[in-house]
Amino acid sequence: MSEVKVRISDKVEGVVELEMDNKVIGRKELVVTLFHIGASTPSRKEIIDGLSKVLNAKTDRIVVRRIDTSYGAGVSKVRVNMYEDGQKLKLYEYKHVLDRDAGTKQKKGGKSG
After folding, report:
1. Model pLDDT for residues 13-41, shown as the tens digit of each residue
2. 6: helix, coil or strand?
3. In 3D, which of 79, 101, 103, 78 has the Cα closest to residue 90?
4. Pairwise CA distance, residues 3 & 15, whole Å
5. What pTM, to 2 d.p., does this model score?
6. Contact 70, 88 (CB under 8 A)
């Protein structure tokens, strides 16, 4: 597999290090290394938007499972799942992960507003 470069924004670029095709579940599992030297860790929305442009996938079928950033390094490892259809995404992903990626997660213990 050739190396796929990802450009999230002007300050964030990366490389798809691993791409596995899980045909049983109907998804691709990616490990992406993002370089954001001198900038903050990109948000889940920024990562999803950037990956959808590079990989020609719909944004509602990409899930950011995990972002690991070493303190002060400006490098993050991101685990991403990319589904073939929306039904399988809802079947296999946790609701709190989907809410977190969509930005609709409610905070615990407080009243809204």
Report:
1. 999 999 999 999 999 999 999 999 999 99
2. strand
3. 101
4. 7
5. 0.81
6. no
